[in-house]
Amino acid sequence: MATHTLGERIAEIRKTYSISREDLSQRSGVQADLIAKIEDDGHIPDLAPLIKISRGLGVRLGTLLDDNEQLGPVICRAGDAVSGSRFKTGLPQGAASGGHHGMSFYALAADKTGRHMEPFIVAIEPDAQQEKSAHEGEEFIYVLEGTLSLEYGKESSTLNTGDSVYYDSIVPHRVFSANNNPVKILAVVYTPV
């Protein structure tokens, strides 16, 4: 089975449902030029615009991220998730996406069909730059390694290895390295039907 980029999947779904970029922009609240950048240039945005685009298309977030789908349980063996990142976000200005900059998302259940949760291992480099985002759903984060800063609304928290947080993702939020060292987290994003 041939794999498709995120932009190719969005364009394919748009064409299937006869949705123009402008229509998708209105439905999702994501600017048409960002949709064009994703489809034409292979740009990978943060999760918030992806969730909004998936809702605008009437599909699960996983539909945009999947290569294959499986009906039964999906087992991700040790080391399988980190064999290749699904996508990167938060790249510093001018950074090459092939480097170890930004935030790398490693999917843990990419092949599970019909899922509403997206579990990831996320490697956050010290130079990752992420704007606050807000989207429907909930998130759970468990810090595997390092010290994480969480900005949630007007509050700020520091989480250390072994700490976790569960929050409504409709509130503007962002995570980043608290002390200029790499951080690794388990993140589960839940989006309702």
Q: Outline of this structure?
A:
It is built from 5 helices and 9 strands.
Describe the structure.
The protein contains five helices and nine strands; from the N terminus they run αααααβββββββββ. The chain has 193 residues and is α+β, with helices and mostly antiparallel strands. The protein has a six-stranded antiparallel β-sheet with strand order 1-2-3-9-4-7, with no helix packed on it. A three-stranded antiparallel β-sheet has the order 6-5-8, with no helix packed on it. A hairpin with a 2-residue loop joins strand 5 (148-152) and strand 6.
Strand content: 25-35%
Q: Which strand order spans the largest sheet, edge to edge or round the barrel?
A: 1-2-3-9-4-7
Percent in helix: 10-25%
Output mean pLDDT. Answer: 83
List the helices and strands and how they pair.
Blueprint (H helix, E strand, L loop, with lengths): L5 H11 L4 H8 L3 H10 L5 H11 L3 H5 L21 E3 L13 E5 L9 E8 L13 E8 L2 E5 L2 E5 L4 E5 L4 E5 L5 E8 L3
Antiparallel strand pairs: 1-2, 2-3, 3-9, 4-7, 4-9, 5-6, 5-8
Record keyword descriptors for this entry.
193 residues; alpha+beta; six-stranded antiparallel sheet; 5 helices
